[in-house]
Amino acid sequence: MISATEQALENCGREPIHIPGAIQPHGMLLALEEPSLRVLHASANAGEFCGVDFSGLLGKPLASVAAEAARAISALCAQGDPATLSPLRVVIAGKNYDVLLHRSEGLLFAEFEKASDLSVQNFHRRLQRVFADLRNSESPEALYEKMATFVAHFTGFERVMVYRFEFDWHGEVVGECLTADVDSYQGHHFPASDIPPQARALYSRSWLRIIPDASYTPVAIEPAANARTGGPLDLSQSVLRSVSPIHLEYLRNMDVAASMSISLMVEGKLWGLIACHHRMPRVLCYAERAVCEIFGQVASLEIAAQQERRRLADHVQATTIQARFFDIIAQEHNAVEALVKYTPELLEFMGASGAAIHVNEITTLLGNAPSEKDTGMILDWLKTQPLQPLLVTDSLQKLLPTAEKFRETASGLLAVKLSLVEPQYLLWFRPEVIETVTWAGNPDKPVDEHTKLHPRKSFSAWKETVRGKSRPWKEAERRGAQEVLNALNALLLRRTERLLSLNAELEKKNTDLNSFAYIAAHDLKEPIRGIANYCSFLREDHASDLSPEALRKLDTIDRLAIQSEQLLIALNHFSRIGRMEVAPVETDMDALLDGVIDGLEDLAHREKVKVLRAGKLPVANCDPVLVREIFSNLITNAVRYNDKDEKRIEIGCTTGEGGTVYFVRDNGIGIREKHFDSVFVIFRRLHAQSAYGGGSGAGLAIVKTIVERHGGKIWIESVENEGTTFNFTLGAA
Amino acid sequence: MKNDVLIIEDLDSDFEMVERGFRRVEKAPARLVRLRGVREAWRFIDDMDAGSVPGLIILDLVLEDGNGCELLEAIKGRPGWEKVPVIVWSAYTEPGVRDECLRVGAHDFISKAADSRVTRQNIADIASAWEARLLSF
Question: What is the enclosing helix (H) or strand (E) of A67?
Fold first, then answer.
């Protein structure tokens, strides 16, 4: 349902305000034919101004009623563009008039207003001073106030406001000067519909509009149809143009009789207005208006200068903060910690009130952010959005309706995806604009319910337009976010590079270690074998000379030598596995396992082991030689570390989301959880070597190496005295 | 001489192990010639008449002055020596080495072990094979 106010505003937006067909009554308008200056159109009050009967004016040359004025106008038009050369002082029927001329649609428009003795020259020194003063404003806010103050004192209007258009063309009163006891509108917001597009277009073309008396009765221009085009007369450039009745009603509701607005143009765009109100009718002569126009133009330049200064300062500040911020995160080990540590800066240079960091499935909230749950909801939604790599919105609820409930904190969202593959995000939040707006006007002052057009109504109307909206993200801020992303990536890249070089170093060390292990294993075998050989010679040659005690010790030396050799063989084998190329091929795992079990048949028979197969194994891409070793080692261990009378081993696999998980389960002695990692360390034994059949201590280390060389994982589930399950995957291959 | 056994081995205790093994067999070789390295081996081989090739060569692989496997290949390529049985006796466990030795003509590949019972058994096997003339040459 559309309210009456909205209807009125809607109508306002469609109103063709440049062709009202009428003027305000404080002057006279003639549209003349050149060069004859024949009167083709005249405002209905023209007869009165010229002291003749109106009917005697239309169609006649101007010279026939005002010969001197006609001569002066002809002379001026001959010199050049009459719009830039006027005003012209003329006398008609014994009275002085200032005439403003302009050409439009092939007609020469002449607007006559009562002349004043003032000229712009009278205000020369005053203008010089005020312009210098404007230049010295220490802030934009100070500048706006000075502008309002000057215009108020110069024109005598009671309320002068500096009205700035915002990004969405809604307006805000950013400076004000009141010289009487009238309502203040400082900080007041007006919806864009209050000054509709066609009005803004008009304001961009002319520097000043004035309504001396809002209760005036419009004076029609006759005939209504353009004598040249047949269409309505275009009064865009007319100073006397009659204004919209809606606007007049608005003014009257505000208790405003006289109104004037001066355009402020910055960078070729309508930046705002100096809007002047007076409760009594008020006429400004041409010279005064000219001063206001000049003032508006100079003020516009000052606004531009101030804006540029602020932009520079902002930029310098943002750059400084960013540079410091990037320095910090570059030094930090953990980027998230760095971001948290630098929260104020992270929020400040992005002009955000809150932020969230989502890295490695952990969300960290900073500043004024939605709850963890709500942020989680935003993140879930973001994961479905194509970010490239930013997502920027000043109205999140438009994209994500459920975001309505936390619009106070997060109407605006700027999201950066930190990683191409991982769901890692950095989010900045901005509150709903409405939350940040206060109006200095008296909100308790009663407003007549029937008064549909009123600033208070405007304020409510504007509030509706910004519900669920935040201040928009500026280009500079998007760039800022992009730079943060770049900095984090650079950091990550540096870290990756460091990691790569560390890896290379590690690899080299591993290779060295492997070669060492290999050389050591081989070269050490020789002296150890030597020791064993001499023990054997000693026994052969001197057994009778030796005491039983000495012979036992000889046996011990022999045994230790053999044990040393076994360790060396295991080390050698382990190092070889580490150096071996993994050569994956399509492998029938079931057949492979058959082979392994067959190979261990003796062992199984000896130990009375029951080997169960839990279903068939699939075909897998792996190195069969190495994988055979995995099963062989795990099965051997399952048999070896088992003290049950009936030893059982179950082998099979499960297939889930993470791929195939193979398992080898036994009913053996089990492994305590605290040893889950250490069992995989080479030569780390949990039991005396003599216990449980004396393995070399390299088996599980070899298994783990093979699993990892395949890109897989291995893990243990175990209950002491009940059994152990070794689970492993063979990676994505 | 067909009654000779060459043992190319740099480690004294390993040689002694072989020596002791052959002492136990009834028909001992006429000579058990110990050669310590590749150069010594070549000097000896070069001095031999083509008709007096040995009956058996026991060869270690990792020698102080060279590679036993290459020596094996060279011996096997020498006219008149093609059929001399060579048994490689090494602590070398790298897979592939065994296959390589067999490929270039080794009669057998036996791993050295610290366990003297194993070693004795291995050498007893070699010696008794020799004794029984089971080695074909």
Answer: helix A67-79
> What's the alpha-carbon Rg for chain A, to the nearest Å?
46
Contact call for residues B115 and A532 (beta carbons, < 8 A): yes
Across A245-249, A497-501, A613-617, least confident range: A497-501
* Alpha carbon distance A31, A194 (integer Å): 31
Higher pLDDT, A161 or A15: A161
At residue A621, φ and ψ (nearest 5 deg) are: -95, 105
Contacts of A230 (CB under 8 A, 6+ apart): none
Q: Which pairs with CB-CB distance under 8 Å and at least 24 residues apart come from A382-389?
A: A382/A415, A382/A417, A382/A425, A382/A427, A383/A423, A387/A415, A387/A416, A387/A417, A389/A416, A389/A417, A389/A482, A389/A485
What is the nearest CA distance from B29 to chain A, expressed in angstroms?
21
Coil/strand/helix, residue A402? helix
**pLDDT per residue as tens digits for the range A706-731:** 998 888 899 999 998 889 999 999 87
Q: How far is CA B21 from CA A540, A542, A547, in A?
A: 12, 17, 26
Helix (H, G, I), strand (E, B) or coil at A412: strand
Long-range contacts, A213-216 (Cβ 8 Å, 24+): A213/A24, A213/A26, A213/A257, A213/A258, A213/A281, A214/A248, A214/A251, A214/A252, A214/A256, A214/A257, A214/A258, A214/A259, A215/A248, A215/A252, A215/A257, A215/A281, A216/A24, A216/A25, A216/A26
Does B62 sit within 8 Å of A536, measured CB to CB?
no
Provide mean pLDDT across the span A75-92: 88
Contact between residue A163 and residue A174 where contact means Cβ atoms under 8 Å apart: yes
Which residue in A654, A678, A681, A665 sits closest to A718, CA to CA? A665
Compute the Cα dihedral for A398, A404, A407, A410 and give only its sign. negative
> Contact B11/A525, CB-based, under 8 Å?
no
Measuring CA to CA, which residue among A394, A396, A419, A393 is closest to residue A336?
A419
Tokens of A176: 């004000």
Task: Report the helix count and the strand count for chain B, using DSSP H and E.
Answer: 5, 7
Return d(Cα A634, Cα A589) in angstroms, integer: 15
Identity at A175, one-letter amino acid code: G
d(CA A671, CA A668): 9
Task: Read off the pLDDT of each residue in A556-582 and give the average, rounded to a whole number.
Answer: 85
**Longest C-alpha distance within chain B, in Å?**
39
| Contacts of A499 by beta carbon, 8 Å cutoff, 6+ apart | none
Contact B94 A576 (CB under 8 A): yes
Exposed/middle/buried for B133, CB within 10 Å: 0-12, 13-18, 19+?
exposed
Which amino acid is located at A388 in the chain? Q
Give the type of residue at B94: E
Q: Quote the DSSP letter at residue A61.
A: B
In chain B the first and final C-alpha atoms are separated, in Å, by 12
Phi, psi of A190 (to 5 degrees): -125, 140
Residues 6+ apart with CB under 8 A from A589: A617, A618, A619, A620, A622, A627, A653, A662
Residue of B17, B115, B120 to mutate, interface with A, max A Cβ within 10 Å? B115
Pick from A519, A528, A529, A555 the residue to mutate for testing the B interface (most B CBs within 10 Å): A529
